[in-house]
Amino acid sequence: MTALIVLSHGSRHPRAAGLIEQLARAAHGGAPEALIACAAHLEFNDPNLERCAAQAREAGARRGIVVPLLFTDGYHSRVDVPRAVREASAASGVELAAAPGLGSGESVARCIARRVERDAPESSRVVLAAVGSSDEAANQSVRRLAGLVAGMTGRGGVGVVFATRGGVEDLMDQVRAHGRVHVVPLFVTHGLLLDRLVAARADIEAATGGALTFSQPLGTDLAEVVARRFREALSRTP
């Protein structure tokens, strides 16, 4: 029997872990093959991956598929996740395998496009707000994702701001240039970096004379993507 484990980076935000748990439950609904679904975190929150694997073992699972809640192939994806999977597997006795992360392809683009259609005023420029990375290839993948969303929604250009690289200043430039901006966070859950962008709303509007609105983090909208990653990995497991 196999467990579905979603693995987040973790956050000090008080609402972050709760939404990850909701996503794990929602993904389980789309992956009934999983014996159990649980949420683990690389840091800041409990349980970590080792404890989550132990919980899966106690429930009767002998294997676990870990779906990293990551949009880009950055350091966490290449280094932190494989190391955490190896260590948790050795410590728990559960055979763990990492599935591909959420990524920045068409399945995630469709989730964002649905958010745009639901939340974004027709007159607003749509902007994706991502964390940002020291790896420029990871940042470029977010820009390509914005292009996919633009094509799916017919909104023309979709902008991108990176919370750790320009952040508030770049968002202000977007509002100054376009007048009305709607931000869709490329965040799975709530986070302090996203809060900083939201907290700057009044100052940005006062400085530019424009209007700025925000969607909520993607959260359970990603359940279908997580379930698909699990099923695909399960089909490749001997």
From TrEMBL:
<protein>
    <submittedName>
        <fullName>Sirohydrochlorin cobaltochelatase</fullName>
        <ecNumber>4.99.1.3</ecNumber>
    </submittedName>
</protein>
<keyword id="KW-0479">Metal-binding</keyword>
<dbReference type="InterPro" id="IPR050963">
    <property type="entry name" value="Sirohydro_Cobaltochel/CbiX"/>
</dbReference>
<dbReference type="GO" id="GO:0046872">
    <property type="term" value="F:metal ion binding"/>
</dbReference>
<dbReference type="InterPro" id="IPR002762">
    <property type="entry name" value="CbiX-like"/>
</dbReference>
<keyword id="KW-0456">Lyase</keyword>
<dbReference type="GO" id="GO:0016852">
    <property type="term" value="F:sirohydrochlorin cobaltochelatase activity"/>
</dbReference>
<dbReference type="Pfam" id="PF01903">
    <property type="entry name" value="CbiX"/>
</dbReference>
